[in-house]
Structure formats: structure tokens, C-alpha cells
Specification:
294 residues, alpha/beta, seven-stranded parallel β-sheet
């Protein structure tokens, strides 16, 4: 077909173009040639662009701040939630996807929202289970060179440019992590959660590994190498609950939340009792002083 014919078939606007992939960046949608070759994270962390730091990074700081504000504002009214992690590459009929779907439904029935990265594979399965069980299904997406897009089972979604802003939301608005078989990103979330609990940055934060066959080698290495060499303590191994039983995983999370609530209530009651005792002592002291003056 000639160029003239192509323009005629497309209403004189030039050759017709096939629908292409798209990338969502906040309120902006990019398609085809408008999609940049790098991500916001790559541009932020690229030390070769030092000459741009004084001009561009100040503006990036505002963009980063806006991501935190958007996340905090959107998720502030979220009910108790559990973050679920796992591979985007898992097939829908894989054991981990079937387990994730069952887990999402069980968490929803227990009153939890389910937060995932919003992508395919294990994430989609967990979102689907929660949504079909009537729970709130949340997806926190991320800009990646290989665009994945948010799965169709997400009810509430936020797209992030920066990993660190997104990772904050995973922890801040969750009562627990459940980690199913996955790759580097899954391991990143797992060890960040364990580090936060170990260092006391978060308290009573259950970390559940599901898929005993997949994770057994890692746990053996943590015990026989890291702990044996003194790099972690034996108590650190107790931060992880390993199970293939969905009901056991949910019970573990519910029990940890109940224990934390009881502990916080005991602290509150102790503080109230201490305040009342101080007030009585002050009143008795004032009465005694008045009696001496009289």
C-alpha cells in the first residue's frame, strides 16, 4: 500500500498504528514511543548524572514527597491488612498460586484487607481470593522497564515510581507479611521485614513463609550457617513461621495481633493506674500541707 493510500485509510493522519503497550505514571498514561527507556528509580540512583543533582534532584524530592502523601492519604482508612508477596512468574495453576488464592480468601474472611504488589502470578491469585471472598483487595504497583500492569482483581490501586516509597506502604499499613515462593523481589521484602522486626523498628509483626519445600533450604542455611556462625541469634529464627496450612497461617497472624492488643491494653492500664496514684499522692500531700498550716 502506498503512503497516500495509508493516509487515506487512516483519515489523512498518516499510517495507522497498532495498539501498543502502555505505562501508567501517576495521572499520566504513556504509550509506544512516549514510554521512556529508563525508570524514575534508575534515574534517581544513577551516579553518572552528578551534574544534574543540584537542578533535578530538588524537584525529585518533591515528587518523592508526593508519592508518600498519596500513599498515606489513600491508605489511611484501610482496615487491618496483611501484605502478601510471591513471584509474578508463577503460573495460575501452580501450587503457590492455588495456595495464594486460598490464603487471600481466608484473610478476607478473618477481616483483613490483602495488599500485594498488584502484578500477575502469586499477587494476582491473592488479590483474586480476597476479592471473591468479599474482602478489600489492594495493589501497590511499581514502574518497571518490563511493564506488568495491575491485575484485574485489585479494588484499590496505587502506582509508584520509587521502590522505597512503595516498600514503606507495604509495612506501614500491614499487620503481617505472608511470603510465598518468589524471586529477588520477594526475598528483598522478606529480609527487610525480618530486619525491621529484629531491630525493633516494628513490633509483633508476624512473618509467615508458605511453601515448606521451597523455603526449607533457606531456613536450613539460616540455622546451620548464619546462626551457627553467630551472625544471627537462635531467637531470630523464631521470627519466622513456616507452614503450608492456610488456616494455621491466619491463626498465627490473628494470635499475634491479639497478643499485641493485650500488651498495649496492659501498658495503657498501667499508665492510667500510675497517673491516678500520682494524683492521689499529690492530693494527700496538699492535704497534709494544709493541715500543718492550719
Amino acid at each position: 500500500m502506498s503512503d497516500r493510500a495509508a493516509r487515506s485509510d487512516s483519515g489523512g493522519r498518516g499510517p495507522a498504528r497498532e495498539p501498543g503497550r502502555e505505562r501508567h505514571r501517576g495521572a499520566v498514561t504513556l504509550r509506544r514511543g512516549a514510554i521512556p527507556t529508563s525508570t524514575a528509580d534508575q534515574r534517581l540512583l544513577d551516579s553518572r548524572g552528578r551534574g544534574d543533582w543540584k537542578t533535578k534532584d530538588a524537584w525529585r524530592a518533591l515528587r518523592i514527597l508526593s508519592e508518600f502523601v498519596e500513599g498515606f492519604d489513600t491508605l489511611a482508612d484501610l482496615p487491618p491488612a496483611v501484605s502478601v508477596f510471591g513471584s509474578a512468574r508463577s503460573k495460575p495453576d501452580s501450587p503457590e498460586c492455588r495456595m495464594a488464592e486460598e490464603l487471600g480468601a481466608a484473610l478476607a474472611r478473618a477481616g483483613y484487607a490483602v495488599i500485594t504488589g498488584g502484578g500477575p502470578g502469586v499477587m494476582e491469585a491473592a488479590n483474586r481470593g480476597a476479592s471473591e471472598a468479599g474482602g478489600l483487595s489492594v495493589g501497590l504497583g511499581i514502574e518497571l522497564p518490563f511493564e506488568q500492569g495491575l491485575n484485574d482483581w485489585v479494588d484499590l490501586a496505587i502506582d509508584f515510581r520509587y521502590f522505597f516509597a512503595r516498600k514503606t506502604m507495604f509495612v506501614k499499613y500491614a499487620q503481617a507479611f505472608v511470603v510465598l515462593p518468589g524471586g529477588f523481589g520477594t526475598l528483598d521484602e522478606l529480609f527487610e521485614a525480618l530486619t525491621l522486626v529484629q531491630t525493633g523498628k516494628v513490633t509483633r509483626f508476624p512473618v509467615v513463609l508458605m511453601g515448606t519445600g521451597y523455603w526449607r533450604g533457606l531456613l536450613d542455611w539460616l540455622r546451620d550457617t548464619m546462626a551457627a556462625d553467630g551472625k544471627i541469634g537462635p531467637v531470630d529464627l523464631e521470627l519466622i513461621c513456616l507452614t503450608d496450612d492456610v488456616d494455621a497461617a491466619v491463626r498465627h497472624i490473628v494470635a499475634a495481633e491479639a497478643a499485641l492488643s493485650a500488651e498495649q491494653e496492659a501498658i495503657r492500664e498501667e499508665a492510667v493506674a500510675r497517673t491516678e496514684a500520682d494524683q492521689r499522692a499529690a492530693a494527700d500531700g496538699a492535704a497534709a500541707e494544709q493541715a500543718r498550716e492550719g
